[in-house]
Amino acid sequence: MMDADTMVLPRIGDAAIEDPWGEDRPRRPTARAATAAVRRWRIAAWLLPAALAAALGAVRITTSGLSAAELAARRAATSPRQGIGLTGDDVALGPYHLLLRGWAELFGSADLALRVPSLLAIVGAAALVGALAARIATPAAGLLAGMIFAVLPTSARYAQEAQPYALAVFAAVLATWLLVPALDRPGPRRLVPYAGAVLLLGLCQPVALLLLAAHGWVVLAFRRRAAVRWLAAVALGLLPVAALLGAGLRGGGHLASGVRSGAAVLAATPGELFGVAALGGVLAGLALFSLPLRYAAAICTAWALVPALALLALAQAVPVWSAVNLLFTAPAWAVLGGVALSRARAAVAVAVLALVVVLGVAAQLPS
């Protein structure tokens, strides 16, 4: 008779029997290892674009002498203090000249010294483009977006000019990067830094405040409950700008220069905005794959399109249309391109990224 406590053990080689201790199973990565891998990718998403932007921006930063606009900035930064004002044609440039004066007192007024703030701004913008795309999409999208922005010829060009446009690009990316968590949890701890970014944007390039129209559309479309607190943060950032620039406007100055929009002017804008017209076509094509109005993609879709449409409307009445007045929208196109490539097959993504790099770098080579 068979003992009730005795059972027949199966053969060890029987594949149908599961090892209760899991010693023969393939080991899966632990949650900690997976988190570490994601963290490394998120670091790469901002670090590699920043390094690339720094390299491309520094390569020929001292090759050419200062332009007429840069010479004017040097005069403003080194002239007696009573010679600087926020009146006349310098209304938009006055805050930048004041900033450059402080920089020149610390580091001198040599060509390289005056251009370093712009280089640092583009490097910071490239890092934030990668971080923003990683935040709203994936680390892969962040890396791709940051690389696209870094290789744009206009990124390198304005990194090498002592002008406020690179700082305005940085401020626009910073404001958008801060907008995302501020709308998710709209408390003072998140909205006050956003207000600071709005202030910086207005001081660097007042016309770039058209970005707020894009942010407002996103708030009304997706985060209406945060609208009042968002408006309060915007007002907090705009009041100092309005106070600083108001006197200059009353004195007959203007905040932006450009031309009236026309067919020929509009046709030339993509080449001026991205450095190469073909790059504008590639990024516009990629953006079509990111245009569905989901919250994440809609943030950058609005950033890319709403300011351009608003500036176009203004240009019907006053001559303000200029590609440089839309430079702060270039990061949005890079993010949309990076998001689109992150959804494509690896071979397609590598091929398109290689095309963007070739077009961008080739345009920066000396002719």
Core attributes:
367 residues; mainly alpha; 15 helices; 68% helix; globular; disordered N terminus
Short précis:
This protein is mainly α. It has 15 helices and no strands.
Give the ordered list of helices and strands. HHHHHHHHHHHHHHH
Tell me how many strands there are: 0
Number of helices: 15
| Unreliable stretches covering 5 or more consecutive residues | 1-5, 12-27
GO molecular function: glycosyltransferase activity
Protein name: Mannosyltransferase
Subcellular location: Cell membrane
Organism: Micromonospora echinospora
If you had to describe this structure to a student in words, what would you say it looks like?
Keywords: Cell membrane, Glycosyltransferase, Membrane, Transferase, Transmembrane, Transmembrane helix. GO terms for molecular function: glycosyltransferase activity. It is a multi-pass membrane protein. It comes from Micromonospora echinospora. It is found in: Cell membrane. The longest helix has 29 residues, at about 30-60. This protein has 15 helices and no strands. The chain has helices at about 30-60, 70-80, 95-105, 110-135, 140-150, 155-160, 165-185, 190-205, 210-220, 225-250, 265-275, 275-285, 295-315, 330-345, 345-365. By secondary structure, it is mostly helical. Residues about 1-5 and about 10-25 have low confidence and may be disordered. The protein has one domain. Helix 9 (about 210-220) crosses helix 13 (about 295-315). It is globular.
